[in-house]
Design goal:
Elements: E1 2-3, E2 13-19, E3 24-29, E4 42-43, H1 44-47, H2 58-77, E5 80-81, E6 90-96, E7 102-111, E8 118-119, H3 120-128, E9 134-137, H4 145-150, H5 155-171, H6 184-193, H7 207-216, H8 227-231
Parallel strand pairs: 3-9
Antiparallel strand pairs: 1-2, 2-3, 4-6, 5-8, 6-7
Length: 256
């Protein structure tokens, strides 16, 4: 295990790194890029401060989850992976009826901040390169095990991140967090190589919600459900029609 920090203009901050049988991985991240927002838009990160002890009603969670998952499905269908699904990259955008009045369901969740997104061809090319070190970027607590352990990027990681977001919506607390006295490198190693289960809600949520989360948190990325399968899960049975649903992505230019 390598632990250190490198900062300064043009440099990345390094949290830690390790070596596996196939590659060496450094985990880190730079400052978050500012993103313009409309007057009525706000980040999910802002919204969740108001329910840190109890979570949202499950009906609201279903609606937001469906909106986010539709965006993920659309991104994947276009040949891209977002690679950083977390609450700070979710916008709640007002819904308006045809006469420009707010609807009874006032907000729709939309994915934003595509600075980490990559096309499938870019991901494939990166994986085929032979590098001494792979520099891994992501948001602590939302990175999938395969991303941490082997720098394996792809659509399955977006589903893991979605599961983390759904947990926070349901119970107001993160699915994974650093334990008291635990170092950051120990936390990352536990996430990437351990067998810890996420902190699932225990506040009376439905069996359908718990099963949905279990499908998102399958540690083997090849067995994790994809976006299309999750859209047909009983948890989202009220939102079945993909083709006739408006998909909303926050406007930030092309996904590159």
């Amino acid at each position: 295990m390598v632990v250190g920090e490198e900062t300064g203009k043009g440099k990345e901050k390094v949290w830690c790194g390790w070596e596996t049988k196939s590659r060496r991985v450094m985990v880190g991240g730079g400052g978050s890029a500012a993103m313009g927002r409309g007057r009525d838009e706000h980040r999910w990160e802002d919204e969740r401060r108001g329910f840190s002890d109890h979570g949202l009603p499950e009906s609201d969670v279903k609606s937001f989850t469906n909106s986010i998952l539709l965006d993920i499905h659309y991104i994947h269908e276009k040949g891209f992976a977002h690679l950083d699904i977390n609450p700070n990259n979710i916008l709640l955008v007002p819904r308006y009826s045809s006469n420009k009045k707010r609807t009874a369901d006032p907000f729709v969740a939309e994915i934003a901040d595509f600075k980490t997104a990559k096309s499938f061809s870019q991901i494939s090319a990166e994986q085929q390169q032979r590098k001494d070190w792979w520099f891994l970027r992501g948001t602590l607590g939302y990175m999938s095990p395969e991303l941490i352990a082997e720098c394996e990027k792809g659509t399955a990681g977006d589903i893991w991140g979605l599961g983390c977001v759904v947990v926070e919506m349901l119970c107001g607390q993160p699915a994974f967090s650093i334990k008291p006295g635990e170092r950051m490198d120990e936390f990352l190693y536990r996430m990437g190589f351990g067998d810890d289960s996420p902190r699932l809600p225990d506040n009376g949520v439905s069996e359908e919600a718990l099963d949905f989360l279990k499908r998102c948190f399958v540690r083997d990325s090849k067995l994790r459900w994809d976006a299309a399968s999750l859209l047909s899960h009983p948890f989202l049975q009220d939102f079945k029609d993909i083709s006739n649903t408006q998909v909303g992505l926050a406007e930030e230019g092309p996904i590159m």
